[in-house]
Amino acid sequence: MARSVVITGSTSGIGLGIAEGFAKAGDNIVLNGFGKEEDINKAVSKIGSLGDGSVIYHPADMTKPDEIADLIACAERTFGSLDVLVNNAGVQFVSPIEDFPAEKWDQIIAINLTSSFHTIHHAVPAMKKSGKGRIINVVSAHGLVASPFKSAYVAAKHGMMGLTKTVALEVAEHGITVNAICPGYVLTPLVEKQIPDTAKARGITEEEVKRDVLLAAQPTKEFVTTEEIASAALYLASDSARQVTGTHISMDGGWTAQ
């Protein structure tokens, strides 16, 4: 039977890759995120063509609790249940702490951390009712270690790890698991766009940017792929992972082993 899967921040990048994985498994998907209407329509069509499940789009803004509540309700209304929740929405801003704009701090905490409180808050009652559920939080290596100039992002991601563990303990006897995936650098369109500019600014080749700048922290010197993250999400959503809860899967090329 097809599962009902909500994935926040899934109109591009990692979230879209995860949606592709679940679509191929035949699941019903609720996509969410920002973008041009034509790009969102393309994403819905693409995901819909990959399997037998249905795909819909919900435009919930992750800074607005009422819209987040409606996102979860929409999945239940449309598909009759909510089986898998993937919290993936995230934004980044880089600045020394003394120059960090307060409004950017508030935005990052809202989208990268508080939005997941709201999705989980509304998803858990439905999952408890059906006696099963999977909550998967896409965190980051920055949920485990820090980098300078990313105070809001690192704080939010560390918060996500605490949220993951706490909710896992609360719902452990209800057939619900809660876990995190912690990727290192992933070659998303967002990252790819930064490479030529960085190469120009530093006077080095694009390959050197990848190896010596972006992947400096990753011993394998290889990017994590969205397909690999999707595979981890599919495992955590499977019956085989029913005793895996309150923990994380690191996919960072050895970054956090150092």
Distance between the termini: 42 Å
- Low-confidence parts, pLDDT < 50 over ≥5 residues? none
**CATH structural architecture of the largest domain:** 3-Layer(aba) Sandwich
CA radius of gyration: 18 Å
CATH class of the largest domain: Alpha Beta
Overall number of structural domains: 2
Helix content: 40-55%
Query: Major sheet: order of its strands?
Result: 3-2-1-4-5-6-7
Order of helices and strands: EHEHEHEHEHEHHHE
The structure class reads alpha/beta
CATH topology of the largest domain: Rossmann fold
What is the strand tally?
Answer: 7
**What share of residues are in beta strands?**
5-15%
CATH superfamily descriptor of the largest domain? NAD(P)-binding Rossmann-like Domain
Task: Report the mean per-residue pLDDT as an integer.
Answer: 96
For the report, how would you describe the main beta sheet? 7 strands, parallel
Count the helices. How many? 8
Tell me, briefly, the overall form: globular
